[in-house]
Amino acid sequence: MIRFYAPDISHTGTLPESESGHCVRVLRRREGDEVEVVDGKGRLYRGTLLDAHHKHTTIAILETVELPKVWVPHITVAVAPTKHADRMEWLMEKLVEIGIDRFVPLRCEHSERKDIKAERLEKIAVSAMKQSLKAILPQIDDTTPLQAFLAEDASEAQKFVGYCDADTPRTLLAKAYRAGADVRILIGPEGDFSPAEIDACRRAGYVPVTMGDNRLRTETAALVGADTIHIINQVFS
């Protein structure tokens, strides 16, 4: 069954305009049809259509089901957007499919793209959440300067920064991460972090890591990093 997204469904009983239009005009659902709705906070609602209106479809909620995360730790991925925005949209889709809790676009010294629209990424994330049958939508931040992100209190999490400079002591992420721990992964721009930025990361407690022997694009490194965390937790938790 196709799922719809309505963050306030428990209070309003109504689909947002975009979801209402998709439900009524595209899928041609009518009064009495059964529907499933997720709120992005971990809950699934089953019900029937009361009013199949293309701008404000209302639903009679018959059942509420808690759909907890399938992963244990809180996973934050912070990455400098690539020059081509479609690569970030691809990354957002895949990260939601495997599961993360927060996504932070970073503004760095070598960033080729200084900003990216969180609204567009959220649309991609909503679609991926529904298609992968999840009920949790990650927090998606506005583009954040690296120094502001480093200044956040993250004392409870393991912190890693992906870095390509072979002259800098690094460890393999798969060996450094401790199963079950909350984690923050930093991935730099296509021109990598500057030496000053890496120094700042290390002072903030971020451990330089590598994802393996392959040279990876920015978006690939971010995805491999997040998936490594999932695999370790599945094997050792």
Provide a concise account of the structure shown.
The protein has 237 residues and is an alpha/beta fold. It is built from 8 helices and 12 strands. The two termini are 32 Å apart.
Query: What proportion of the residues is helical, as a percent range?
Result: 25-40%
| Largest pleated sheet | 8 strands, parallel
Work out the radius of gyration.
20 Å
Order of helices and strands: EHHEEEEHEHEEHEEHEHEH
- Please tell me the overall pLDDT: 92
% residues in beta strands: 15-25%
Based on DSSP secondary structure assignment, what is the total number of beta strands? Answer: 12
Query: Structural class of the secondary elements?
Result: alpha/beta
Q: What's the overall geometry?
A: elongated
Number of distinct helices: 8
Unreliable stretches: none
Distance between the termini: 32 Å
Can you put this structure into words, describing what you see?
There is one protein chain. The longest helix is centred in the C-terminal third of the chain and has 19 residues, at 218-236. This protein is α/β, with parallel strands linked by helices and 237 residues long. It is elongated. Strands 5, 6, 7, 8, 9, 10, 11 and 12 form an eight-stranded parallel sheet that branches. It has a four-stranded mixed sheet with strand order 1-2-3-4. A hairpin with a 4-residue loop joins strand 2 and strand 3 (43-51). The chain is built from eight helices and twelve strands. The protein has helices at 9-12, 17-26, 85-98, 118-131, 146-150, 173-176, 195-203, 218-236, and strands at residues 3-5, 34-38, 43-51, 58-66, 75-79, 102-107, 139-140, 144-145, 158-162, 171-172, 183-187, 207-210. Helix 3 runs parallel beside helix 4 (118-131) and helix 3 (85-98) runs parallel beside helix 8 (218-236). Helices cover 33% and strands 24% of the residues.
